[in-house]
Predict the structure.
Amino acid sequence: KKAEPTIPVWPAIKILLILFILFFLYKWLKKESFNIPYILLMKKKIYISLIGGLGNQLFQYSCALNLAYKLNAKLIIDDRTGFLFDNIYNRKLSLPKKLLKNKISFFDTLFLLFLRLIKKTFYKKKIFHKIFNYLIIDETKSKSYIENFYDKTKNENKIYLIGFFQSEKYFFGNRQKIIKKIFQKKFYKIN
């Protein structure tokens, strides 16, 4: 007699995990409007993951916006993942919603979290690191302005910024333009 073939356990578990992920994606997309993941498009892109309080978010946004202006790139803002594990201060997004035109898609979020995990696991001490075709700039280890910041970014198409970028030098070139964008009458009443 021939033994009947059995289904190996690991492939069955993998299939169940894939089905679970697909179900989760379906539920997510049902709640949110579906947009094409920016990763699939070929324009230059700057990704920033917002963290911290209002002051930190203003520095991060200003740095990323200045870089987007200089590189003629699209600024894509992750306004969720930076606050997920902020259990001590329970900070939330503080920037005006009108500044967040290009929010990150769900698929981009997953992919960039994967890149961030690789960077934090294997390349902790590096400020600049390229994974696939993404230049990841992790400024969290730097105590001051990164001198070669713009030289390293000018030939890159996809840049993922991680950190606080707390120096006016990161956005000094377009300072007035950025201030006008942030403090438009639509967002704040200026006395």
Summary: The longest strand covers residues 45-49. The two ends are 90 Å apart (CA to CA). The helical segments are 9-31, 54-71, 106-122, 149-153, 175-182.
